[in-house]
Amino acid sequence: GGGRRWRGGTGRRRIRSVAAPTTLSHLSCSECGTRFPADRPAGLCPDCRRPLLARYDLERARRTLTLGAARERPPGLSRYAEVMPFGAPHVDLGEGRTPLVRCPRLDELVGGATVYVKDESVNPTGSFKARGLAAAVSRARELGARGVALPTAGNAGVALAAYAAAAGLTAFVACPADTPAPFVTAMRLLGAQVVRHEGLIDACGALVRERAAEAGLIDCSTLKEPYRVEGKKTMGYDLAVQLPRLPDVVVYPTGGGTGIVGMWKAFGEIAQLGWECGAPPRLVAVQASGCMPIVRAFREGAEEARAWEGASTIASGLRVPRAIGDRLVLRALRESRGTACAVGDAEMIDGAARLGARAGVLASPEGGACLAAAMRLAEEGWIDPAETVVLFNTGTALSYEPVLRARALG
Asked: What is the pLDDT of residues 19-52, one digit of tens each?
């Protein structure tokens, strides 16, 4: 069921190349383009209140960060040190060493396409959030922060708590009251101060902003600081390193949207670095039918997404009524010639069960949503049988045990 796991390289023994220091140059507003220095803590652009993005001297980076060099280096964020924001060794718990699993028993479900699963559940905190928070917390420590804070649906809070603990920083987390208990237990075991709030994640965000201002903490909310997206973009770099060429389609579960934004940023940087690994993939943003602001905006041809009223889904990571990075996500989908689709909770659970039974991947509902979406897109002819498709499983099923138990027992 699992099949071959691509980790890059030719199998011949070689001397591993040594990564050069970061080429971080400055920050720039994703909307108005205004430049800002990168040597101090930063939030949103003060003028247009849109996310800032880290920029690098890619001409200098390309001297050492070749595709061949990246394939010879050990896996993890430091594999791409030239285009990572930290100047010193970062807080490393083993994040980013995730397999790309060839899943031939999924091919027939996706119209005969060649299917891989990028399994982010094997990250040290059980989800892809480890990548982003490793970068954000490492950079916060470099910039002299006393502590960090964020709102969370679960996985991000666990990752923040873990990396803050390893960095010696305090961590404050606010989460909806109905956040699955395994997430809350993990955050507290990792030393975070956790507040459970009756509202959704946007209301938790307001609480975090207030606490961060009072206590002098860096607010690590999605895309409200520039460095979480830098950790997330390594998922895109990994696809170039682990496959002979970039896939045709990437299917990704989308709540706050940092993963989509990060990977599209990575593919742009890869082109400027001169890596010969094929054209960038078409990106698919998958949301829950009970909370689909990006899908609605994409279908309407809008440039930004209106807040979704009455958000409801079993997938905590997809219950994001409004994302600050909505314009960036929609831009990435359109520039990549991708699409957006929504699936129901029952489809997610069925997809997670199929990933387990057919591919040996212990998938979260978010990962199950990606398989469900790919099956539908193949049936509609949007995915061609000759194409290579990568589905992202962003977290482990174990964190959702109460939600998935009924399906497993049935």
From this structure: 779 999 999 999 999 999 999 999 999 999 999 9
112 Ramachandran zone, left/alpha/beta (phi>0; psi -120 to 50):
left
Question: What distance in Å separates the CA atoms of residue 41 and residue 265, rounded to the nearest whole number?
Answer: 21
Contact 324, 222 (CB under 8 A): yes
Strand order across the beta sheet in which 218-219 lies: 193-197, 170-176, 147-151, 218-219
Decide: 172 and 160 in contact? Cβ < 8 Å. Answer: no
Cα-based torsion angle of the residue sequence 31, 32, 38, 41 in order, rounded to the nearest 10 degrees = -70
CA 165 to chain CA centroid, nearest Å: 21
The answer to whether residue 404 scores a pLDDT higher than 90 is no
Average pLDDT of 141-162?
Answer: 94
* Other CB atoms within 10 A of residue 150 CB: 32
What are the DSSP calls for 26-85, one per residue? EEEETTT--EE-SSS---S-TTT---EEEEE-HHHHTTT--HHHHHHSPSSGGGGGGGSS
- 274 burial level (CB within 10 Å; 0-12, 13-18, 19+): exposed
pLDDT value of residue 403:
67
Rounded CA-CA distance 316/177 in Å is 12
